[in-house]
Amino acid sequence: MRILIAGASGFLGTRLAGRLSAAGHEITRLVRRPATGPDESTWQPSQGQIDPAAVAAADVVVNLAGATIGRRWTAGYRSTLRSSRVDTTGTLARAIKQLPAADRPRTMLQVSGVGRYGDTGDRPATEEAPAGTTFLADLCQVWEAAARPAEDAGTRVVLLRTAPLLARDGGMLKPLLIPFRLGAGAKLGAGRQWMAWMALADWLGAAEFLIDREDIAGPVNMVGQVQCTNAEFTRALGRVLHRPTLLSVPGFALDLALGGLAEELQISQRAVPAVLEKSGFRWSYPDVESALRAAVDV
After folding, report:
1. Strand-pair category, 107-113 with 156-162
2. Does CATH number 3.40.50.720 belong to domain 2-171+196-224+270-284?
3. How many CA atoms lie within 13 A of 151 on its CB side?
4. Which residues fall within 8 angstroms of residue 66, CB to CB, at 6 or more apart?
5. Rounded to the nearest 5 degrees, what angle is found at the Cα of 8, between the Cα atoms of 258 and 89?
6. Residues of 147-167 as b/e, b for ≥16 C-beta within 10 angstroms?
7. pTM for the whole thing?
8. pLDDT tens string 81-132
């Protein structure tokens, strides 16, 4: 298949492009600089500019673009988080809708986040759960809504509601490894909050699986099969690294260090992968400890 990827130079995009290319798919990367070869196409999503021929040539469009969540949220950065997602998604979706029906890509995989559910408490949140009221919940709603023109045009749109990913060189695990290895690993607050996560290898496998499964559309929770609390995650990482995990980080310290992001880290998100389970997807790392061991090669 011919696959057009936005965000192909990012943490997820480089790995997904490599996996799909190795599987024999033809990959074209959307870039914001002049294209340097036939496998690149220039676009400027903040200005709504994209080459319609690049979209028409694709069987599948994958949109992974968006500014990183993992830094301190100022008011200005909140605006960046929103525009970097809505502009890219809207540009792609409108380009798909404007094509003649025969030229439209069959599928659009659109990344989103489990933050859409807000604070779920102890309630398991399937893909049918209502949206929350946090900043990320609102962001995910407008982000997903920006893909609607493609869906209205008849393209199959899959919303990848992604949990924080476990990988040595990126995702949420990378910044944790040094303090945990120094014996300073700590749960966040009381640690009773549910914590969404997914192994990077399983995310990549699920994305490829969903490209092929033309019977699946709409939201898909990209999360590990077995949910855990923050305290359980902390103890598991301590066991994997053979380090103590007796500390806890109080909420006020998180607020000082991370601003608005701190609130999101302390809420409870018990997202469950109902669609993937029903579809027969098989996780390589269904529980958090096996995922952590694979991520740090222990």
Report:
1. parallel
2. yes
3. 16
4. 7, 81, 84, 85, 88, 111, 143
5. 75
6. bebbbebebbbbbbbbbbbbb
7. 0.94
8. 999 999 999 999 999 999 999 999 999 999 999 999 999 999 999 999 999 9
